[in-house]
Write a structure and sequence with these properties.
alpha+beta, seven-stranded antiparallel beta sheet, five-stranded parallel beta sheet, 23 strands
């Protein structure tokens, strides 16, 4: 059977992990005619995405691409190419293809109109069904078989061995392990010569060692409209007090340098500005008008500090500071908070570490130590702040990995002499995505996979599942508060 024989069976791809990276790779591969099977250890897919979207699903960000790329730190050179191939506009176009409109909030972050991840996931799963993707839940990857290529999986019916033309690993990092990304895959890849960086929490909270009073009275209290400064960088926003320390968006933005400083020196001192929009001189003048009032009363009346902010000020200052308006004003503007540890991977939004970038071919994301095995998403050693950068990066890595080392798009009638894998993996550009989302087509031809279920009840490509249908293009950006 030659490479151009139309009767050739579709190439098979096994994807391990049904998070955003795995599902997006499955969609792209199935759209090109591959027989795709996705294996997920949990009872349902996209659990971490659904959890992250409970308070509003932040898909991506609208800032200029040059600034966007800088959010990836040491991995910025890699992501410069990835985001050129799959920019934020392409992710919004993809959402529009699912019938999900998006908008830009006043912060520049991009959200679906519904704010809900569940709406997007349901539409996405319907599309995958229409493409013939087989989803096997409750199947945990145990490692490679004795031949080094087959996959050992533990499912409801016991251990099974799966073979495919190509394998794509999208198992996530090591944060939020109860949702599936527990990093257990690291031992298997390390044993096979894949270079790994140790997992570290990213976008995480920190331990401050509060007094029993603050811990018991204010755990869970929000601290709004503040600014945090560390390492020459200042970030404004909101944080939350925990029983042992702090967490929240403004903390996550500085979590990488704070974590690194704690690892190097054992502690890090963060500066908290409780009134970032009020100059220190104005704070001093207001505090000087105390006139016999109690300190909590004047802090509330003159500066409008919340009870949690007052408690923080009391926690981090001594008695002499609290009776001196000048010293107290300085503390209000730069309150030192000594952090001694991260809150751990189990509470982190994401993780750093994983497969080192030198362990992959950057053009294809194929593991150098395991030819035919590709990786995507948070399995790779990169990190980014919250704000849409994590999800955008995950989709972009999945897009490149899903190409499986494909050549440029083939001319009509081309492909002679190419391998079966090369023949079906035509790069899937943002322009093609947008065109398919708006063309009113029913998607690619149905795959030759019979509908039905396997012995353990896993979902196969369902016959008669709806196609993509006609979708609207993404709406222009609009500035409204999320």
């Amino acid at each position: 059977m030659t490479a151009t024989d139309p009767a050739a069976p579709p190439p098979s791809v096994a994807i391990i992990g049904a998070g955003p990276a795995g599902l997006f790779a499955a969609e792209l591969l199935a759209a090109r005619g591959a027989a795709v099977a996705v294996y997920e250890s949990k009872p349902s897919p996209a659990r971490k995405l659904l959890m992250a979207g409970r308070g509003g699903l932040n898909l991506t960000h609208s800032e200029p691409l040059a600034q966007f790329v800088g959010r990836y730190g040491a991995a910025a050179p890699l992501f410069a190419g990835l985001l050129e191939e799959f920019p934020p506009e392409a992710l919004r176009a993809w959402c529009a293809g699912l019938g999900i409109d998006t908008f830009v909030g006043t912060s520049g972050r991009v959200f679906p109109d519904s704010f809900k991840a569940s709406v997007l996931v349901r539409a996405w799963l319907r599309r995958l069904e229409g493409l013939g993707v087989r989803l096997h839940t409750r199947h945990r990857w145990l490692g490679f078989g004795a031949d080094g290529r087959s996959l050992r999986l533990a499912g409801p019916a016991g251990e099974t061995v799966v073979r495919a033309d190509a394998v794509l690993l999208a198992l996530g990092g090591a944060s939020w392990p109860r949702l599936g990304s527990d990093g257990a895959w690291a031992a298997e890849l390390a044993a096979r010569g894949v270079p790994l960086a140790p997992f570290r929490p990213s976008n995480c909270g920190f331990i401050a060692g509060w007094s029993p009073y603050l811990s018991e009275r204010f755990a869970g209290a929000p601290v709004k409209s503040v600014a945090l400064s560390f390492g020459g960088r200042t970030v404004k926003g909101e944080m939350v007090l925990t029983a042992a320390g702090i967490e929240g968006g403004v903390v996550y933005a500085l979590s990488a340098p704070l974590r690194d400083a704690i690892e190097a020196e054992g502690a890090a001192v963060l500066r908290l500005d409780l009134k970032p929009d009020l100059p220190e001189q104005a704070v001093r003048e207001r505090l000087a008008q105390r006139r016999g009032k109690s300190l909590p009363a004047v802090l509330k009346a003159a500066l409008r500090l919340s009870p949690a902010q007052v408690a923080l000020l009391h926690e981090a200052t001594d008695a002499a500071t609290r009776v001196d308006p000048a010293r107290l004003a300085a503390a209000v503007k730069a309150l030192p908070l000594r952090l001694t540890a991260t809150a751990g991977l189990e509470r982190a939004i994401s993780s750093a570490g994983g497969v080192r970038l030198e362990g992959i071919d950057p053009a294809t994301f194929e593991l150098r130590a395991l030819p035919g095995v590709f990786v995507a998403g948070e399995m790779l050693d990169w990190e980014a702040p919250t704000g849409g950068y994590l999800l955008q990066g995950t989709f972009a890595t999945a897009r490149r990995a899903a190409a499986l080392g494909a050549p440029p798009p083939l001319a009509a009638g081309g492909g002679a002499g190419l391998s079966r894998r090369q023949r079906f993996t035509v790069p899937f550009t943002a322009d093609r995505m947008a065109a398919r989302a708006c063309a009113g087509t029913a998607g690619p031809p149905a795959m030759a996979i019979a509908g039905g279920r396997c012995c353990c009840g896993c979902i196969f490509g369902l016959s008669g599942a709806p196609g993509m249908g006609r979708s609207k293009p993404p709406r222009p950006l609009r500035k409204i508060s999320p």
